[in-house]
Structures are given as structure tokens and as C-alpha cells.
Inverse folding.
């Protein structure tokens, strides 16, 4: 699952064409803490995926890396303090030939200042992680890998149009650990058509047994303009029953808690290291949920600075033909109501919630303040939200239907 984020709520300003990220950021003083790099190449386009990606014919990999080197150098002017997180997503970054992958990763380190303790994540499909790729990641300083397992059941992998052998997940993990990369996350999908609760529990057990320190469990969503949604519309399968999907989520919550994982976000669980609940959380994604600032590199990558969001041009050919920082096709400057809604929407996804003082600041913004306060009060009365330990947060029950509550608040 790609880690770039684009959160655009009702009331956002209309998307406008801009020359560059510099134009997008005019008038704001960003403090960039992270970098997202988008690599669009894939071996096969998974049917549920709506991230910008396409099947790689390997003829533009070298051009991509050369253009990325240039773009990273141009972005350096915007970095005032060492970056604390880097996330390389896609697509499938590990589909790059090892020599080119190494070049791209070296460019990040050499052209941008990184904090000595920076978290550096690369997404990978299990079947792409051979010894050469694992060694390249480790040698470059990557210290976290997010593996897209999605399921360990060949039948459900086929439904999703995933092409890896379930056994390749364990092989990839062993190779990554041998290369010195200890922090490994696994992505799983539930609510796949035809999937039973028992089959989902089996997927959870397989993932837990692999001994990783982070799990992301996402309910399958039917995004517009994806092959999965087209197939659904043709009647090729029935979507998972909502009751069954809820039971799957309940099983994830219960079984991961018993296995020692701490749920810190609606869809994410982290292991607890030496009593520290925060050590294994994905620090880069925390930037998104806390509305911090991050830079974007690569075609279709999204960035954020002080409430301004933009997307790099989402066509590889146009991106390759550009110079310096990427052309920007969409810029969204939300009004006060939109900014307030985004802060609530993102912050409440975290189990820790939003500090009460910040909630009061948020409710005071924009014309929808009274309506938003009333919505919060209704959610509290319904047992979906609670005020506890100085924060507004979802209850266990509220987490089950978080999206419905968030949509009302936004």
C-alpha cells in the first residue's frame, strides 16, 4: 500500500495548475520533517490499487533514477533541518534493478540532510526481495521495509491479482534480516470477496508467526477507476458482507492484542519494545496523521506544507521531461473549515486521539465550529468518542465504525 497521502475534504479550494512546488508553497514557511519518494513501476497492476503505477518494461528505469537524482538535489533548498523520515513507495520500488535502486537510495542520502536516527522505509513486494535487493537496501542505510503480503491464501491473492507465492514472504523477511534490516512491517487485506473469518484468522496467525514488529490491516475498498471496481460492477463477485467484515476486524483487534501488538491507529498495530509503545510505530505515517510537513519526489507523489497540499505531475513522461523540482498539477489550499476538519479527521485516526486543547482550537476555526462541536457531543453521547486523559479519542466501539463518525466531523 502506497504511503503517499492526499487528504482533500469538502470545502477545499479548486485544484489549479501550478508551475512547481515552489509556487505551491509561496507564502508559507514549511518545516519539512519527512520525504516521500514515489517509484511508479510494477510487475503487474493489482486490481484494487489506485496509486499511480504501471507495468514496467525496464526501458525507463535508468531515466527515472537520473531524473530523481536531479529532483532530490533541487528539493534540498527547502530542507532547513535534517529529515526525520523517508518513505520510498509505489508502485514497487524494489522492482528497480539493484544497481539503479542503489543509485536512487544513495541520492536520497547524498542530496538531502538526514537525521542520524532517521527512519527510512522502503515498500517491497515479497517476490522482488532476493539477496541482491536485500543487500542493496541494507548497504544504503534503509532500516525499515514494508512488505505487501496482503494474504497467505493463494485463492484470495488471485482475486486481488497479486502474483507472489505466499511462502515468498518468509523468504523475503529472512533475506532482509540477514542484510541487517530488523524493522519489518507486513500489510494484510481483509474483506476479500469469498474470504471467511477463519481464513482471515489464519492470515493473522501466519503474519504473527513471522515475528515482525508491525502489521497494517486494511479492509478492502473499491476505489473508482480500478479493475476491482469494474469487476464488481460486472457482477463477477459479491462484496464481503459488512457483518463478516466487522467480525474480521474484531478478530484482528483481539488476536493482535493477545500477541503483544499495540493498536495505535485505525488500521495499524505496532510491537512493544522494552515497554515502549511508540518505538515500532511507523514514524513517517505519523507525520501524515499529525498534519506535519513532508516533501514529495517522483511522479504523482503528494506533499504537504502548513495546510497546503500538492501533487507532482502524475505522468512519467511529463515528469521525466521536467527539470528541477517536479511540475505540480494540483494544489489545494483549504479554507478554515477544511483545515479544521482535516486536523480532526487525521488526529482521531490515532488511538491516542487529539489533545483537548487542540480540539478547542479546531472547533474555534471556521463557520462550522458550532456544528462540529454538536457532532462531537453526539458521538460522545452515542459512545463512539470519549474524553479521557486530556484527549478526545475513539472508544473501542467507535473504532469499529470510525469512518462514519469522521465523515460527519469533516
Amino acid at each position: 500500500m502506497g504511503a503517499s497521502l492526499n487528504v482533500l475534504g469538502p470545502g477545499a479550494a479548486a485544484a489549479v495548475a501550478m508551475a512547481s512546488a515552489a509556487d505551491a508553497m509561496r507564502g508559507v514557511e514549511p518545516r519539512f520533517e519527512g520525504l516521500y519518494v514515489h517509484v511508479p513501476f510494477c510487475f503487474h497492476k493489482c486490481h484494487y490499487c489506485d496509486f499511480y503505477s504501471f507495468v514496467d518494461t525496464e526501458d525507463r528505469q535508468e531515466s527515472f533514477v537520473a531524473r530523481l537524482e536531479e529532483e532530490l538535489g533541487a528539493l534540498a533548498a527547502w530542507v532547513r533541518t535534517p529529515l526525520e523520515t523517508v518513505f520510498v513507495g509505489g508502485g514497487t520500488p524494489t522492482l528497480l534493478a539493484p544497481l539503479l535502486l542503489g543509485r536512487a537510495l544513495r541520492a536520497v542520502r547524498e542530496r538531502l540532510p538526514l537525521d542520524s536516527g532517521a527512519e527510512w522505509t522502503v515498500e517491497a513486494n515479497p517476490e522482488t526481495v532476493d539477496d541482491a535487493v536485500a543487500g542493496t537496501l541494507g548497504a544504503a542505510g534503509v532500516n525499515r521495509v514494508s512488505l505487501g503480503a496482503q494474504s497467505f491464501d493463494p485463492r484470495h491473492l488471485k482475486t486481488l491479482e497479486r502474483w507472489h507465492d505466499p511462502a515468498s514472504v518468509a523468504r523475503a523477511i529472512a533475506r532482509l534480516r540477514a542484510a541487517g534490516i530488523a524493522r519489518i512491517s507486513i500489510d494484510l487485506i481483509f474483506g476479500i470477496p469469498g474470504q471467511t473469518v477463519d481464513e482471515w484468522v489464519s492470515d493473522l496467525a501466519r503474519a504473527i508467526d513471522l515475528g515482525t514488529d508491525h502489521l497494517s490491516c486494511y479492509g478492502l475498498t473499491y476505489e473508482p477507476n480500478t479493475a476491482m471496481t469494474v469487476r464488481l460492477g460486472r457482477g463477477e463477485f459479491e462484496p464481503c458482507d459488512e457483518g463478516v467484515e466487522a467480525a474480521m476486524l474484531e478478530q484482528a483487534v483481539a488476536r493482535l492484542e493477545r500477541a503483544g501488538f499495540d493498536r495505535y491507529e485505525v488500521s495499524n498495530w505496532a510491537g512493544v519494545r522494552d515497554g515502549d509503545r511508540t518505538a515500532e510505530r511507523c514514524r513517517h505515517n505519523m507525520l501524515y496523521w499529525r498534519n506535519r510537513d513532508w516533501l514529495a519526489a517522483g511522479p504523482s507523489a503528494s506533499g504537504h506544507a502548513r495546510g497546503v497540499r500538492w501533487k507532482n505531475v502524475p505522468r512519467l513522461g511529463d515528469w521525466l521531461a521536467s527539470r528541477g523540482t517536479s511540475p505540480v498539477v494540483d494544489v489545494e489550499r483549504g479554507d478554515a473549515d477544511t483545515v479544521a476538519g482535516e486536523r480532526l479527521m487525521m488526529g482521531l485516526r490515532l488511538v491516542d486521539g487529539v489533545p483537548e486543547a487542540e480540539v478547542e482550537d479546531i472547533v474555534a476555526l471556521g463557520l462550522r465550529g458550532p456544528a462540529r462541536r454538536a457532532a462531537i457531543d453526539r458521538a460522545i453521547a452515542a459512545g463512539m468518542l470519549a474524553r479521557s486523559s486530556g484527549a478526545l479519542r475513539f472508544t473501542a466501539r467507535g473504532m469499529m465504525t470510525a469512518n462514519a463518525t469522521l465523515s460527519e466531523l469533516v
